[in-house]
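Quick start: read one record
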Amino acid sequence: MTLLRSWVDTANSAETPFPLNNLPYGVFSTDASPATCGVAIGDKILDCQAAEQSGLLTLPGGALLDRGVWNPVMAAGPAVWTQVREQLTALLAAHSDVQAVVEPLLVTMSEARLHMPFAVAEYTDFYAGRHHATNVGTMFRGAENALPPNWLHLPIGYNGRASSVVVSGTDVRRPWGQIKGPNEAVPRFAPCARFDLELELGAIVGQPSSGPITVAQADAHLFGYVLLNDWSARDIQAWEYQPLGPFQAKATATTISPWIVPKAALEPFRCDTPDREAPLLDHLKDAGPMLYDIALEVALTPQGGKISTLAQTNYREMYYSSAQQLAHHTTSGCPMRVGDLLGSGTISGPEATQRGSLLELSWGGKEPLTLEDGTKRSFLEDGDMVTLRGAARGDGYTIGFGDCRGTVLPASDTPFGPA
């Protein structure tokens, strides 16, 4: 596929993350208007609620875009997803015969505030990147026992907190928690000293299910994708996680990018999962190319300092796809809901510069990184701003997600407010 041209001039650049080929879904507000659904096109946002109210967008079942979230469109199903995309493309395509009536519905992106694009029903995070799992396992169990015995047979995951998912630009306060160092006899309650980032892709479930579904069905249920930073308190995690896994260490915040990139926009970039070392059981076998060729990077900007690129990798490095994760999630009969969010797990590549967490990049703090300004990092310091970026690059166009960004605030003087 090549660049689809739009009458919005800024959408016709090979470098813009939001060409007509993309049309990602978001929620925005301005000084003059409350939060409303929109799509990004070049450096503009089309007010989709206004387009629906004016009859430019006609969707079955009545108004779907007047709730300030995209969940009603998701719930309407894949046929409606296709209709929305086709109608939006027609409104914004070059030589559109309705440009004159659509143009007043555009808002300059720099003048808008971006909000959570959907209401998160539930949140599940996975541990499905082999390079990340191997690195972490090697640090703590040695190379011979890096992967748990079940890892090559199923996507490991845990149920997280939907309430702590926030949109890009939201500050993240360093958490307090129970910590026990290797030379300490008893735990202590203190601010996290080993606060970390995790580079992930988030998949959004657009259709409900009440029992097991196949990988192919799971793929059809996915509405779109966001970048995701699963902030992690490594020292809290080290003390609490045995035997049940992550809990408070992962509950501080999970940041997502503000635009939902539709699955349809990523179709040209599908690619296969890696060769399997152990055959997967039938319910997890690939149903075609299930990953995407999406270049990813992590950047860190110290307070008042220069930006440093910490890592560059690609989503195609994952071992299990989002569709496999969703299919496995349903095998117990677990109901899935519209708006469920699935974190891919940390995305790392085989090289040291492709590691998607500071835990890996600094090898557990033993090999601190040197930033552009000469300062060093093993884990995040107060004032650090973390930015995740992602893009799939086609023939003369780019499919982007918008920055996934958050700044670490100091821990509060006391974790407890007034009684």
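The radius of gyration is 22 Å.
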